[in-house]
Amino acid sequence: xxxxxxxxRDLTPQTTWQQTKWAWxxxxxxxxxxxxxxxxxxxxxxxxxxxxxWAGFAASIRWMQAAADHYGVELVVVLNADTGYxxxxxxALYAEVLRRFRxxxxxAKFIAGVTARGTESDTAFQAERYRTLIDIVQEHDNCEVMLxxxxxxxxLAPERRRDAYYEIAEWLIRPxxxxxxxxxxxxxxxxxxxxxxxxxxxxxxxxxxxxxxLDEPHFLYWAAMCKDLxxxxxxxxxxxxxxxxxxxxxxxLLIGAAVSGAPLxxxxxxxxxxxxxxxxxxxxxxxxxxxxxxxxxxxxxxLEDQVFRLDARMSASPYKHSTAHILHSLGIIxxxxxxPACRDLRGADEAARMEEAVRRGKRxxxxxxxxxxGVT
Length: 376
What we know:
The protein is α/β, with parallel strands linked by helices. It has 13 helices and ten strands. The chain has a single domain, classed as TIM Barrel, CATH 3.20.20. The protein has an eight-stranded parallel sheet with strand order 9-8-7-6-5-4-1-10. It has a two-stranded antiparallel ribbon with strand order 2-3. Helix 8 (243-249) runs parallel beside helix 9 (258-272) and helix 10 runs antiparallel to helix 13. The longest helix is centred in the N-terminal third of the chain and has 18 residues, at 54-71.
């Protein structure tokens, strides 16, 4: 029988997750019924008549905040340089997104996603390509900077990739979050090796990381490693196909799914806690958690499986078009229109598909008295 690595000092840049003990830890071994972790919701910038719908932008955030307040969940809005549109926003519009958010929500913390700009003619990684967006973000306080993956950064071997993150971190004056993806989200992306995660988790400027995967449960690997080694580093699940796992483990979510399902997700976070948990808002009276949460998990997962369904290219990137249709159907934004340059679009029948997708969620909201999802 192969001996599994359990000491991080034994990791090498070539170590695979399957060679470590953390790849073989079951979800049930690290379940947490006492911690209500934050919900980081990647806001959508809606459009109307080919222009940003700023009223709809603020309304969608207030809708999420109302759900979070009702269930005692910490909401942190995520304002990526794409706000749902794969970096179609130029620097000036992105700066305006941040300014308008701060003006509308002066005390709210936000996470800002940044990536490399101006790489079209590059043939190798250049850390300074991240500087433009970092400088825009760090004009604001009470925020965290998420270093989103980019093609040339992702192409580096593990040791050089670590050095690149450390180089970018030299510019951070706000807390940093690192970001990993797999090919289902962008075709050139690769998740972190265990050695790389260990190296990044030790950096004093990185408070956590986001991982989105479909083919392997890397978030579970991250969670097992960080808990076992008591790392001061919070894994954030960015997997909109596996939201329940983060809730069960008492770990943060950093997802676009909250933009279409915030009331359901916030309710589930509270229902999962046992009555004695300090953050529990609605007790069961039994001392235990509300087992109806399992059906709620199924309800919002069936919704998000449709919102984030894979297209013919095996990509989930058109999710924002689906999200816009849901927000429009709920009366939160005026139009399901996308960014005028967006090429990741759903078909002409998407409004009907999303009406069908929310049906089960609305039924559960009615049964459980969850406000804000078609229920007053």
